[in-house]
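hey
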């Protein structure tokens, strides 16, 4: 990432945390914790990537996480559409 993209990502995360109701100090601490955990994850990922058997499990785990996030997003949108459709149907029938 370039420096500009990195600054925009951090500012976006910070703004979302503030909008969620955190204080400035809490938002800074959460960003710091997130950055530290990312570095730990990189170190573990690089160490596991050098082991042939572990890299297969790492790819499977990463693929599973991507599928989980995508499916959770799709399912939540589906329920929102069903609720909206139900309300429209009730209004149309009465």
């Amino acid at each position: 990432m370039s420096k500009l993209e990195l600054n925009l990502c951090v500012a976006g995360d910070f703004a979302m945390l503030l909008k969620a109701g955190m204080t400035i100090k809490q938002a800074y601490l959460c960003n710091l914790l997130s950055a530290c955990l990312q570095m730990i994850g990189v170190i573990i990922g690089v160490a596991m990537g050098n082991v042939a058997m572990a890299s297969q499990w790492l790819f499977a785990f990463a693929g599973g996480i991507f599928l989980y996030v995508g499916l959770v997003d799709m399912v939540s949108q589906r329920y929102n559409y069903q609720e909206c459709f139900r309300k429209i149907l009730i209004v149309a029938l009465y």
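The chain has two domains: 1-50, 52-94. Helices lie at 3-19, 24-49, 52-93.
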